[in-house]
Amino acid sequence: MSVRRLWFIIKKEFIQIRRDRVSLGIAIGMPLMMLFLFGYAVKTEVDHISMAVFDMSRSQESRELIHAFQNSNYFVINYDVSSNDTIKKLIDTGKAKAGVIIPPDYGKKIIKGIPPQVQFIVDGSDPTVARTALSSGLLVGQSFSLDLKQKIVHKKSYGFYNSGGIDLRSSVWYNPSLKSELFTIPGLIGLIMQNITVMLTAFALVREKERGTIEQLIVTPIKRLELILGKLIPYIFIGFADFIGVLFLGTHIFHVPIKGSIGLLMLLGAGFVTCALAIGIFISTMAENQLQAMQGVVLFILPSVLLSGFMFPREAMPLVIQWLGYAVPLTYFLDIIRGIILKGLTFQDLTYPITVLAVLGASLLTLATLRFHKKLD
After folding, report:
1. What is the rounded distance in angstroms from the CA atom of residue 62 to the CA atom of residue 103?
2. Distance (Å, rounded) from C-alpha 372 to C-alpha 377?
3. How far apart, in whole angstroms, are the C-alpha atoms of residue 41 and residue 305?
4. What angle do CA 216, 221, 224 make, to 5 degrees?
5. 80 with 55: CB under 8 angstroms?
6. CATH number of 49-173
């Protein structure tokens, strides 16, 4: 083996790496990005759980109970509502993960030493958050009840076990048994569809460039939007067929019942497939070869798994990381598919994620079209 020839080969390879600045930047930047994302996003401890309170008593005693939940640092009282229906709507849309309903005679019963019944509701659609909320809420209730009994015993000096407290009745909605598959399977369907559809179109234009056929398309009267849509539409049918197959197998094999409208789920699933394909087209317009396209796919897929809330609760992430998750289409489709399958939500309940997903899809398609036009120049 000649050391001199080996040196020239090494030198040549370094020159090629330096010329491929996109791949070099991804190779250096991706480990750093993964380190920060995994370091901040991979957390299973949940605190500051969003809570809604319906206080029908409006007494000093009821306010003390509310403060007990808030001072625990596990809950944040974000909503002070005036009806049970409002609590249900907040939990359905994911704005609140827990709710407390205080009866109108709460204050009077506390004064008389009679344990009032307080309803504590937990959204069980996400078992990780639900377990923390349930255990923390019961602990807060027990601690508050014990303190209340001790105060009454001290004031009235009668038997400890007949001295009131509160009767906290917990109720877990949508997933009472807290089965993890009811949460993971719908999310897994969305994740699989995103990954497959992004990869389908990420190589669409790159293959034309590498085969040299892109020049033939340039000289034709085909407009850029026509070319992008022509590349996109065939994969929409393929992606939608994949979505139906994965949805059918996922729900039947793992026994996950669909509580909402299947037709609505199909319609919104087709919209998400289109949005994910637009991401792949956008990656394809930026890549010069299939290696760069694959690097771009990995660069998008890995953060989306973390930031969307598929694996780890977004409530446990720092605020900056949560804001990054708002730019990921999968974040909104997970709300849609889990909402329809687990909670039976309707179109009106899902207006926000549907609107944002539509805007993201249209924006990505527009950016891909404009980006491809620049490439032609």
Report:
1. 9
2. 9
3. 10
4. 85
5. yes
6. 3.40.1710.10
Rama region for 130: left / alpha / beta (φ>0; ψ in -120 to 50; rest):
alpha
**Looking at the DSSP assignment, which residues form a beta bridge with residue 123?**
173
Which amino acid belongs to residue 255?
H
Burial class of residue 162 in the structure, from the number of CB atoms within 10 Å of its CB (0-12 exposed, 13-18 middle, 19+ buried): exposed
- CATH 3.40.1710.10 residue ranges of the chain are 49-173
Q: Quick check: 141 and 111 in contact, CB under 8 A?
A: no
Beta bridge partners of 77: 51
| Helix residue ranges per DSSP H, the chain | 3-19, 21-41, 60-71, 84-92, 106-112, 127-156, 181-202, 204-211, 214-218, 224-253, 262-286, 290-307, 319-325, 329-338, 351-376
Instruction: Give the tens place of pLDDT for each residue, 68-101.
Output: 998 888 899 999 998 999 999 999 988 899 999 9
Tokens of 237: 């049918």
Model pLDDT for residues 135-147, shown as the tens digit of each residue: 999 999 888 888 8
Six-digit token pair at 231? 């590349």
pLDDT computed for residue 236 by the predictor:
85
SS3 52: strand
- How long a stretch of residues is the chain? 377
Residue given tokens 């996003």 in the structure block: 41
Instruction: State which amino acid sits at residue 174.
Output: Y
Q: Which of 187, 190, 203, 192 is nearest to 297 (CA)?
A: 203
**With 0-12 CB in 10 A as exposed, 13-18 as middle and 19+ as buried, what is 1?**
exposed
pLDDT along the chain (377 residues), means of 10: 69 70 66 65 72 92 90 89 92 91 89 87 90 90 84 55 73 89 89 87 76 64 75 84 88 88 92 90 83 84 84 79 88 93 92 93 86 56
Spatial distance between the Cα atoms of 56 and 58, rounded to a whole number of angstroms: 6
Question: Within 10 A of 263 (CB to CB), how many other CB atoms are there?
Answer: 8
Label the pairing between strands 98-102 and 117-123: antiparallel
**Cα–Cα nearest to 83, from 105, 121, 56:** 56
Q: Is 176 left (phi over 0), alpha (psi -120 to 50) or beta?
A: alpha
Which amino acid makes up residue 68? A
Please answer whether residues 85 and 96 qualify as being in contact, where contact means their C-beta atoms are separated by less than 8 angstroms: no
